[in-house]
């Protein structure tokens, strides 16, 4: 709802990025197009039905455009300078927090200047939220880039109901404790009324960190903290609920897309262009070290070497969407992956029969849906992943009930998708066996598993997720109302 008299809103989302990308046409006019990606895909269907404001960075450095409307949604751009993009986003968010929160797969980098910038940018987001939030509004903050925003908003506006959702894992305190600014991060989060996590373990890790780092009390899924050590973070003692609310996809929307004659026809074309193999193995990921692409290639390479699979009967398609290319660890990973693909193809491809089709490109959603339909076995093998929406999209796209999902135990999705072929991606021998099993299993067993997976995603879709989150936020423990410091 819009409180139009004041240009403020009863529902405000804050996320690092706005849900749109700017395109400048050759004649100089500007258009905005919905951007791809996990969060946008999930929130799009939630925001479609409600009026509200979305606070986020527009995706380019320098001055931000004026707020503008996109359908029922008010978009409020937050400016970031080139230096802030380097320090707050590429630095602290993607080179400190991202590796730390994903089990230190690569070592996190700690720089005090990055932290100072992260704090300053979070302050700017908090101010923008307070400006557009109506009295008593609900504010939904997203993800690890904005962990200080809940307390910064609370300090200015105790009247607001504030929720935060973590799209990525929350690490065990033994790893989290490495962070020099661990107490400030926890205090920032405790400004919220409700904190949502992907898995029960993530919520538990957070509560344990509050106990160990802040000396807070935790009972059940609540953290009680007196909030006194720096006199900020809301007035007086607070009780905050931290629980799991696993994210999902717009299952009916994605199923409709996958069912469309155009997508089905495109799937046929893709299969034909691959030489109509008996089995198409596939991986679809952002090119990220958390996604386990190197381990997967290792297993695939050995399967070709052992003769368990061979082109043209079996081929492997790896889509690796370009990601964070200015961060060193991502550039190194890309080189390693491309060297491995080259080696496998050099050894096992023949003229006209390619062992590994590697695509370092971004595709429209329709093409993604068609690719999913072509995959006889989808390999989702991250070393750590908050949820993994590709797993849920894949089973939804297979409306014929065919296919098989190989899924890493270390994804949030594995908590729900128990009927998948579960694997430990670190165990290359075990991973190879699981892939072979998923290829050769009895068709009746495969379709039983697939039916269970499809049922689960249909019943727990993104709308259910948003309703659960907002219901938990609405019923979160009431706190004493303090005086606004605006
Ligand atoms: C974070 C967490 C959590 C990918 N390439 C293209 C494309 N995609 C779409 C996929 C899917 C989404 O992007 C990726 O979502 P994931 O869940 O796999 O991974 P992250 O980007 O790491 O997302 C993750 C998620 O947040 C949500 O909470 O599940 O654990 O890390 O929807 O289909 N879409 C298009 N072209 C591409 O080339 N159109």
Automatic annotation (TrEMBL):
Entry-linked Pfam families: Glyco_transf_20
InterPro entries: Glyco_trans_20
Family: Belongs to the glycosyltransferase 20 family.
Protein name (Swiss-Prot/TrEMBL): Trehalose-6-phosphate synthase
Originating species: Ornithinimicrobium kibberense
């Amino acid at each position: 709802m819009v409180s139009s008299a004041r240009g403020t809103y009863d529902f405000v989302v804050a996320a690092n990025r706005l849900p749109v990308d700017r395109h400048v046409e050759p004649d100089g006019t500007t258009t905005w197009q919905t951007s791809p990606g996990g969060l946008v895909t999930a929130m799009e269907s939630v925001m479609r039905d409600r009026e509200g404001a979305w606070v986020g960075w527009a995706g380019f450095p320098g001055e931000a455009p004026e707020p503008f409307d996109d359908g029922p949604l008010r978009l409020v751009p937050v400016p970031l300078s080139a230096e802030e993009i380097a320090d707050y986003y590429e630095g602290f968010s993607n080179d400190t927090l991202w590796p730390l929160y994903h089990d230190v797969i690569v070592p996190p980098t700690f720089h005090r200047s990055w932290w100072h910038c992260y704090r300053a940018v979070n302050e700017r987001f908090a101010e923008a939220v307070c400006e557009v939030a109506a009295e008593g509004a609900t504010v939904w903050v997203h993800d690890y880039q904005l962990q200080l925003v809940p307390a910064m908003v609370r300090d200015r506006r105790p009247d607001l109901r504030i929720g935060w959702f973590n799209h990525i894992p929350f690490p065990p305190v033994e790893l989290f404790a490495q962070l020099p600014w661990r107490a400030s991060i926890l205090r920032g989060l405790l400004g919220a009324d409700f904190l949502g996590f992907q898995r029960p373990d993530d919520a538990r890790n957070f509560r344990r960190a509050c106990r160990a780092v802040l000396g807070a009390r935790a009972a059940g899924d609540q953290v009680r903290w007196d909030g006194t050590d720096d006199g900020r973070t809301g007035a007086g003692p607070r009780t905050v609920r931290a629980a799991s609310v696993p994210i999902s996809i717009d299952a009916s929307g994605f199923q409709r897309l996958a069912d469309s004659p155009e997508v089905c026809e495109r799937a046929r074309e893709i299969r034909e262009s691959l030489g109509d193999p008996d089995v198409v193995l596939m991986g679809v990921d952002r090119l990220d070290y958390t996604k386990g692409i190197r381990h997967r290639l290792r297993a695939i390479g050995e399967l070709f070497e052992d003769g368990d699979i061979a082109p043209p009967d079996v081929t492997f398609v790896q889509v690796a969407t370009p990601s964070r290319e200015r961060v060193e660890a991502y550039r190194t990973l890309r080189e390693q992956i491309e060297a491995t693909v080259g080696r496998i193809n050099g050894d096992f491809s023949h003229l006209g029969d390619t062992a590994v089709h590697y695509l370092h490109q971004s595709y429209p959603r329709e093409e993604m849906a068609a690719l999913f339909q072509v995959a006889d076995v989808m390999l989702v093998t991250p070393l750590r992943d908050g949820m993994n929406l590709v797993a849920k999209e894949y089973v939804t796209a297979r409306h014929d009930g065919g296919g098989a999902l190989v899924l890493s135990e270390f994804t949030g999705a594995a908590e729900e998708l128990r009927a998948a072929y579960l694997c430990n991606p670190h165990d290359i021998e075990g991973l190879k066996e699981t892939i072979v099993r998923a290829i050769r299993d009895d068709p009746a067993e495969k379709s039983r598993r697939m039916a269970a997976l499809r049922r689960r995603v249909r019943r727990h879709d993104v709308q259910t997720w948003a309703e659960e989150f907002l219901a938990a936020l609405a019923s979160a423990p009431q706190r004493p109302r303090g005086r606004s410091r605006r």
